């Protein structure tokens, strides 16, 4: 076990100026602990505009089915738009959109309200009513957020399906949610090419057996597509001619806001259901406490795709409900050049940047001379999400991107949790590279052993959440049994997150990877994350992924896949050096049996490494389903390099 105390890895104190101006100070924890329900009620009344106040804060009479802010009425889109315009901030920029080919569009809050109103009127004309579902299959363009908000405005739930998913994935999600309308585009731009989207919708609906009545099509690329008579309508015909006035209704706190499908370990994807009042409360609280948002001066940039939960909570709902200006970028970080992100930060003077560790490690590999060419001095806070961030990548992010002045918030949460759960509060504490540190105020997490005992030993255990929280999932769409079984059956009345974690001597939380990624070598529990961090800390290595492969003698053996930095040779000596390094750094038991040097790692578009596929390679099996990879050709490249090594 590596030493992870503050003394060993170092801690980084926030600048005095940051602390002085911070929204939330250290005393917040105590206040929240004293009475977490009163704490959340207070936050909700402060941050959300309720049309009718709620009564009971939490109804937990039928666990695990929670109701928050019972009886309250609100409109989520009103909270994201109208209230800012009413408060006199209609001229503030809501979205700075940057298209991959270099086109840009700006929407003020007043303009965005008009666009959302037009879309809400169009959807109403198409028969969409409160309680219906609308599927959204769009690239990262403003119309995606406009569509989501139009649904919210009508009290209809959206189901955003990531634009990189296949027609089969789209089809099963449309059927499961019984969507009435699909909103899509002709295509999108990715790596300078116009890729198509609409044909996937046509294929998904080709059997004529879905509930879809209308397909609304945004023209993005202008490529040739088929329009089906009586079913398909152009956005620019329908929406552009609709009235920009729309009076919104107010809905129950527990009215469904969205369904977002997330893959399970087995079987079909789970439709994670989120509702309105609790979700908005916790998303807004995290904007205030974790991102320290200052709506009048910040320029926020969350680089996630709206197709995954980070894009829901921190591209659409969080920033807009907070009333801040934000950046939305359509494309990839290396188009047309490897400095694109930094050019965007400079152009819009971004103050807060929120990205995935895999992006940071990619930038490290490309070299710090690229970001150094740009003026990044507007940045004041950095965030990380999606996977554990290795201390090495954390330090690089802090030094090269943050100029040693920006605190980094490493935010742990899930599609299921809706908003941040574990993250340092940047104005309240020093940050520690590689650790998410502690749960945010009002949230109660624990690390338990296999039997549910707390505390788990120094090797770590399983992360659980003890008390209900406002933005918790309300269930799995149409499958209450699976909801109970997946999250609430392992330990009584406790949410089981599926992540391995441990607390260090300072009480700070370190993530060890998903429970299925934790390895067992000769009876020792080893974390993929820890060994990957050790590999990435070696100067030869840019990126690393580790899996446990079945092994006759030790049960499992550690197998590493690494991408080396430019100039390092792919030789047996390099691999041996890396194996030795881990053995010395963590201990002989963690020394990988094999290290393969590869040119790519299999990653989803949300930046998660698909270790399952690497495990197939390590165990010499045929590689399993790779349909959710950002680039499905990488598995061939990996198999080729492994065959050579
Ligand atoms: C927001 C998001 C959830 C899983 C989660 C965990 C991993 C996310 C993390 C992290 C360590 C962090 N994860 N953030 N692990 N440190 N800061 O990613 O949602 O796509 O549902 O994934 O991602 O394993 O259980 P989702």
Tell me about this structure:
The chain is an alpha/beta fold and 645 residues long. It has two domains: 16-501, ANL, N-terminal domain (Rossmann fold, 3-Layer(aba) Sandwich); 522-644, GMP Synthetase, Chain A, domain 3 (2-Layer Sandwich), CATH 3.30.300.30. It is 31% helix and 23% strand. It has 21 helices and 30 strands. The chain has an eight-stranded mixed sheet, sandwiched between helices. A seven-stranded mixed sheet has the order 5-4-17-16-18-19-20, sandwiched between helices. Strands 21-22-24-25 form a four-stranded antiparallel sheet. Helix 13 (309-322) links the parallel strand 16 and strand 17 (325-329). It starts with 5 loop residues before the first helix and ends with a helix. It binds ligand 6R9.
Highlighted features:
645 residues; alpha/beta; Rossmann fold; GMP Synthetase, Chain A, domain 3; 2 domains; 8-stranded mixed β-sheet; 7-stranded mixed β-sheet; 21 helices; 30 strands; 23% strand; globular; binds ligand 6R9
**Hetero compounds:** ligand 6R9
What is the CATH architecture term of the largest domain? 3-Layer(aba) Sandwich
Note poorly predicted spans. none
Taking the alpha carbons of the first and last residues, their distance comes to 29 Å
- Principal-axis shape equals globular
What is the share of helical residues?
25-40%
| Top CATH class of the largest domain | Alpha Beta
Considering the protein shown, what is the CATH homologous superfamily of the largest domain? ANL, N-terminal domain
Sheet bearing the most strands, described? 8 strands, mixed
What would you call the structural class?
A: alpha/beta
CATH domain fold name of the largest domain = Rossmann fold
Mean pLDDT: 94
Strand content: 15-25%
Overall tally of structural domains: 2
Number of helices: 21
Counted beta strands: 30
Catalytic activity: acetate + ATP + CoA = acetyl-CoA + AMP + diphosphate
Binding site for CoA: 310, 522
Organism: Brevibacterium marinum
Family: Belongs to the ATP-dependent AMP-binding enzyme family.
């Amino acid at each position: 076990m590596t030493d992870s105390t503050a003394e060993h890895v170092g801690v980084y104190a926030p600048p005095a100026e940051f602390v002085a101006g911070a929204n939330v100070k250290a005393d917040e924890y105590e206040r929240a602990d004293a009475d977490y329900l009163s704490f959340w009620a207070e936050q909700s009344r402060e941050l959300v505009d309720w049309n009718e106040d709620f009564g009971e804060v939490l109804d937990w009479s039928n666990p695990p089915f929670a109701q928050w802010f019972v009886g309250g009425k609100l409109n989520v889109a009103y909270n994201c738009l109208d209230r800012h315009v009413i408060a006199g901030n209609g001229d503030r920029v809501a979205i700075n959109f940057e298209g991959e080919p270099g086109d840009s569009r700006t929407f003020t809050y007043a303009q965005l309200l008009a666009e959302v109103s037009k879309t809400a009127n169009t959807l109403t004309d198409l028969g969409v009513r409160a309680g219906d579902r609308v599927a959204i299959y769009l690239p990262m363009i403003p119309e995606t957020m406009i569509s989501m908000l139009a649904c919210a405005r009508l009290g209809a739930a959206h189901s955003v399906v990531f634009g990189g998913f296949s027609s089969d994935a789209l089809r099963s999600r449309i059927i499961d949610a019984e969507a009435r309308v699909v909103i899509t585009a002709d295509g999108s731009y990715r790596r300078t090419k116009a890729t198509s989207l609409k044909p996937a919708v046509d294929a998904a609906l080709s059997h004529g057996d879905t509930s879809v009545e209308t397909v609304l099509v945004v023209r993005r690329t202008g490529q040739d597509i088929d329009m089906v008579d009586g079913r398909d309508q152009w956005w620019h015909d329908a929406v552009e001619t609709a009235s920009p006035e729309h009076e919104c209704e107010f809905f129950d706190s527990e009215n469904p806001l969205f369904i977002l499908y997330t893959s399970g370990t087995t079987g079909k994807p789970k439709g994670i259901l989120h509702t309105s009042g609790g979700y908005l409360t916790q998303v807004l609280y995290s904007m205030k406490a974790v991102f320290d948002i200052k709506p009048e001066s910040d320029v926020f940039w969350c680089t996630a795709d709206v197709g995954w939960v980070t894009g829901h909570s921190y591209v659409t709902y969080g920033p807009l409900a907070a009333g801040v200006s934000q950046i939305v970028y359509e494309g990839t970080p290396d188009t047309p050049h490897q400095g694109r992100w930094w050019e965007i930060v400079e152009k819009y003077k971004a103050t807060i940047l929120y990205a995935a560790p895999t992006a940071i490690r990619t930038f490290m590999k490309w070299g710090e001379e690229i970001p150094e060419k740009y003026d990044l001095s507007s940045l004041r806070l950095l965030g990380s999400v999606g996977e554990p961030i290795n201390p090495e990548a954390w330090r690089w992010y802090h030094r090269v991107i943050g100029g040693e002045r920006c605190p980094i918030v490493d935010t742990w949460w899930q599609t299921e949790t809706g908003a941040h759960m574990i993250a340092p509060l940047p104005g309240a504490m020093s940050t520690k590279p590689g650790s998410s540190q502690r749960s945010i105020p009002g949230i109660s997490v624990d690390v338990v052993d296999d039997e549910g005992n707390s505390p788990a030993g120094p090797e770590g255990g399983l992360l659980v959440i003890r008390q209900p929280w406002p933005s918790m999932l309300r269930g799995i769409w149409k499958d209450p049994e699976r909801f109970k079984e997946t999250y609430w059956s392992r330990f009584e009345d406790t949410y089981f997150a599926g992540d391995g974690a441990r607390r260090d001597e300072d009480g700070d939380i370190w993530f060890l990877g998903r429970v299925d990624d934790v390895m067992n070598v000769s009876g020792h529990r080893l974390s993929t994350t820890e060994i990957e961090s050790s590999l990435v800390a070696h100067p030869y290595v840019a990126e690393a992924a580790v899996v446990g492969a079945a092994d006759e003698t030790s049960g499992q053996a550690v197998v590493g896949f690494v991408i080396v930095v430019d100039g390092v040779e792919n030789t047996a000596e390099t691999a041996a050096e890396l194996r030795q390094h881990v053995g010395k750094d963590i201990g002989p038991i963690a020394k990988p049996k094999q290290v393969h040097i590869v040119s790519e790692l299999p990653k989803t578009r949300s930046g998660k490494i698909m270790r399952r596929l690497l495990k197939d390679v390590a165990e010499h099996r045929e590689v399993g389903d790779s349909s959710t990879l950002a680039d499905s050709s990488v598995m061939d490249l990996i198999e080729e390099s492994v065959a050579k090594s």
